[in-house]
Description:
Elements: E1 8-12, H1 13-28, E2 33-37, H2 45-54, E3 58-61, H3 64-72, E4 78-81, H4 90-96, E5 99-102, H5 105-117, E6 122-128, H6 142-150, E7 155-162, H7 174-191, E8 197-199, H8 206-211, E9 220-223, H9 225-229, E10 247-260, E11 283-289, E12 301-303, E13 308-312, E14 317-320, E15 331-336, H10 338-346, E16 351-355
Parallel strand pairs: 1-16, 2-3, 2-9, 3-4, 4-5, 5-6, 6-7, 7-8
Antiparallel strand pairs: 1-10, 10-11, 10-15, 11-14, 12-15, 13-14
Helix pairs in contact: 1-2, 4-5
Amino acid sequence: xxxxxxxxxxxxxxxxxxxxNVLLQLYxxxxxxxxxxxxxxCGDPAVxxxxxxxxxxxLADSKISNIKKMQDAKVEAEYVLLKISSxxxxxxxxxxxxxxxxxxxxxxxxxxxxAKRANQRHKIILMIEMGDGREGILPKDIHEMVQKxxxxxxxxLVGIAANFACFGGVKPSNEKLSVLSLLASELESTYSLCFxxxxxxxxxxxxxxxxxxxxxxxxxxxxxxxxxxxxxTLEQKTIPALYTNAFTFVxxxxxxxxxxxxxxxxxGRDAFGNIPSFKDKGMMNRVILGVGHQDILIRGLTPxxxxxxxxxxxxxxxxxxxxxxxxxxxxxxxxxxxGALLAAMTSPYVTKKYVCH
Length: 357
Ligand SMILES: *Cc1c(COP(=O)(O)O)cnc(C)c1O
């Protein structure tokens, strides 16, 4: 087996556990529970176990294969499929997910049939379109949908949800969440329902949460980014008392030379069809790291030492090493954005390593 040590992503489980604990206590103060979203770590069972041990009993992921991975690793939790299902995967949804988020009648009808065939009742949460323009049922159409769902015996409606700041960048405002809260009570009283989940959003809901005095009926948020990276989504601000460095990306120097800072020759296009431009800094300490666009989201990385990323191609990253003294074989650490974390965890070229400190 090839044992490459770089590039790698270092995962500090103790820091993730700390973040999960702090967020659970914080949201609980206003009666809000947490679904731990595992998609950014591709359903990594080690991270999922940390969520569950911290007291998060509902795990949510956008991929059935990730849910299956966690179940195969015996991580005990209620599993929620976050991404609305395709018709083709209906059978796997009822087989592996306990709950799924849905918005289309044809899919829900097929879920009901599939669950009945397996002598099950599949739980669903309806996504409500609150303006962000991604998935969801318009509030004006919700009554008709709920009435139809109540006629199905293979599914059970256990809640409603909204999603913000994902596609349209729409903020989860107090007004929007009040509408969701009222909609929930209206549905509950009209159809004699008692929802388990009235899920107000994701890591972008933090500012709303800190300002709101009474969140009304909202009793759940679905958190990935804030547990893993310690930030809220809207302004990428650190949430007090959380670690922002639970993940570190590490790459290795494969060339270190003093070279001119400007390319030499007639300029055409780079490997990605762009026409590059560079600042003239004279001769510089130019270092190449053995990592590129195929491995990681380069613009989601920030070096933890005083060097500057000049750019990258498929397999190489070029940096201005300044006065760091970097030499071939040295390792360079980076912090990751959500996008870089997603890419690192998804990439087969990036080694995953669990660390304690
Ligand atoms: C990814 C996702 C989340 C979690 O978002 P974070 O910003 O990581 O907290 C919540 N809900 C849905 C529907 C998602 O797709």
